[in-house]
User: Fold these one by one.
Assistant:
Number 1:
Amino acid sequence: MSVWTAFLYHPWPWYIAGPLIGLTVPALLVLGNKRLGVSSSLRDICAACVPARIPFLHYNWKRESWNLFFVAGILIGGFVAGYLFGNPMAVAISPATVQDLHNMGVDTTGGLLPAGLFNWHALLTIRGLLLTVVGGFLVGFGTRYAGGCTSGHGIMGLSTLQWPSLIAVICFFAGGIVCTYFILPYVLQL
Amino acid sequence: MKHLKYLILGCFFGIVLTKGEAISWFRIQEMFRFQGFQMYGIFMTAIPVGILSVWIIRRFHIRTLRGEAIYIPSKRFHKGYVIGGFIFGLGWALTGACPGPLFAQIGAGFGVILVTLLSALAGTWVYALLRKKLPH
């Protein structure tokens, strides 16, 4: 592997990734007056597939179908950057985090996610169900209730200086910290 | 394919999220434990770049490619921002993913995250169902 091909497999530092994420905001606005916000795509998929008789899911989702192309793109991007050119090394998290996770029995070697927790076999354990099924449900329910997620409030909302988004982001972090310290340790013991 | 440009931009966004390790469960743990700078560095550079870009767009009345005026609706606060935000935070720490990274994780080869995504869709659907009964 030459120096140049090795470079393709490297993760990027925050000062490269952060500004590029920020540029997505004006790119979407200029391309077609679109506002960055990934969780809306979940509503669009619900509206397209199972609207039932729920008023909140009856709207012209086809007008928002650009979002479905955008998330399909994210999936392809994940494939290119995480699979084809995935970093074979463990994610270089701080030694303190490694220590905390080891104390809870989490293997921190290799991959973007702990493979021992997120795989098809683990899915059928109580721990796996809580991490994937319950966790996913909370993400979908919470983001829609909050009117946005990390991209819609955290990046788009804060970039346009909207105080409701700042409150939402603070609450995202409050939930994340409470879960990390008071819920996750018990889930990992199961 | 009038939406091809969004597919390409999404691809770019997915590559940056993945290479920046913002889709990593480990990085999210490091963030919530305040033990590393990667995630904070991403937010602290992405947001100023966004603010500056939006300021430039407004200051110079930049229009879309099709010549339309750029419109940014304001967000109207309601209690869901607090309650829903907190609930999402709980899920973010469990799954290590917010909605964007869910798609990127699946692409990166973690097939089981498809279940997480389906579950997130179920969560969105249940919110839609209960919306009238929830405080806003």
Note: Chain A is about 65% helix and 0% strand.
Number 2:
Amino acid sequence: MRRVFTAYPWLFALIAAGLIVAATVAASGQNPGRDLSAAAQDSSVLVMIGMGQLFVITAGVGNIDLSIPGIMALAAFVGSAVASWAGNPLVGIGAALVVGVLIAIVNLILIMLIGIPPIIATLATGLIVDSAVLVAAGRLTASAPPALMTLMDTRWRGLPAVAIVAALTAAGGALVLHRTRFGRELIATGQSSGAAGRSGVDVMRRTAYCYIVSGCCAGVAGLLLSSLNAAPAIGIGDPYLLLTVAVVVLGGSSIMGGRPTALGVVIASVMLNVMLTLFYTLHMSIAVQDMAEGLLIIAALAGGGERSRLRA
Amino acid sequence: MASTGVESTDISALGEGTVEPSGDVGAPRPRPIPPGQRPLRAGAATRFVDPGPLVAVAAAVGLYVWLAVIEPDAASYMGLSLVLSGAVPLVFAALGQMIVIGLGDIDLGNGYAVGLVNVLVAVTLERNGIVGCLLLVAFVVAYGIVGVLVAWRGLPAIIVTLGASFLWLGIGLQIAPTPAGTAPHWLAVVYAWNPPGVPLPVLISLVALLVGGWLASYSRAGLALRAAGSNRSAVENFGRRITRIRVIAYMAAGCCIVLAGLAVTGLTNSGGATASSSYTLLGVAAVILGGGEFRGGKAPVVGVVFGAIAISLVSSVLALVNVSSNLQDAAEGLVLVIAILSRRLVEGRSRGGALL
């Protein structure tokens, strides 16, 4: 049994998600489809930013990106404004990517040149970006690009477009992590940066790319989320901050780095969101929802999560 | 530079790499120092080189002097009392965070836990003393249980305490969905007291500093905490049960959080489950500014107390120099960066870049 969980670290999250979906179907009677489809939309955004966080966490002990919510909000405003100025949603997406990369570079300057621990460095960057969002919100047009809004409304065989984007992101992430040289070197870096460095891996560069990947994911996710909501908003990413870490670990990846599973991120994102849907269906108060969410995170972890002797 | 030596200490402090462990990691063998290479400053010697609380003290004093220059009233007895009163809850919250970080863990539930205690004190304790006290004891025990979960099969503390934070928030919101309650009479009296000569916040911080500093540096409990944080296997080889140390440490952190919650209630005269959420990250910042390290093994009480005071002074200074409210966040972030940058400069050595 234990060996099965070690081989498939996401199994526990999958079982939990299955049970929750079954409970939702039982609780909502005839029409669970609409609730679950809303859950699919929300979990898609979480998958995208969770993949970015997965790359960063994989890079090894202490690597974490807390500037994701800030990037999401700033990219939403800048991307929307640039898209309406250029009249082309693709330019908006490009602008969102640029925002993500620039903020990631600020993170990297603080982490690598100054030597600030990533948790504090990305937090500080996040605070600075939050201020930029407040300034931007007062000056930039506040409406998501219409083309992207239409795209978000389209469905392909019942799947919302954002879910397909998220699935592609996850598949791409999984390919890069497990099938490319970069991925192998990154995993080696996360397991032991000293050993990886001595065997010729450019540890700093691998780590740097992870923050840039995370910035790009957060930037695009922010723009897509604002298109789902019809308009960018201040604090659009705030609820996702700790969820990104939660989905990485609940999915079975090691918080100590070096053991990523992209599929786990997808499953854990779906699990968290169907759980919120279930709470909504059961008309639980916010307070009870929070308590249940906390208990579930702990239970999922104790039941099947990481059994490393190491701690973060 | 002594790069090989630095990495050997890193590995012993972390326990092991996730790759195959090559033998007993608990007992790093002394390695000969190659000729021409300076010996690594380690162990007791580092303690004298380490700037310790100097950076935090300098930051707190510097910010206070700046404040007093802009606004001379801040230098008076009442001014000092007013300016520093906001720091008291953060001092206690940061001390709780320091205990957990000292073990090599991190507590992401700290802020919401302060909020929960705030609600328990303002709503429950105010109405019914006995039930309120029992609930506060139950809260400290619950913090111990979080410690059990972390110790049990080595679940990552960052996620267990994240899960716990939702619990604290949920329970707090269940008791008081919106800010409610008032401070119990005795607590309001305590926090309204103006002791002769020394403003109350200064007095409280001083007591916290002396008691906490003695406990951390000279008591057996403090020694056990720092030892468990710096080398787990060695402590186990000495026959101390690491689980027990961890549970007691988490309960001690719970007690600090109760003190922080009492302070919030006494100062704001109301109970709100979300009012204290910023203490989690501000507390972590205070610990790092004060000389703590994420890998554990340090309990720098003096630095943490002054670090907490410095961080809470930042917002007072910003308000006085008319920084646009939009830019408050950015200024706080910049101050955080500058504080740690100055620590790095004083220490005069890079600490392995991306590692915590």
Note: The CA atoms of residues 7 and 171 of chain A lie 19 Å apart.
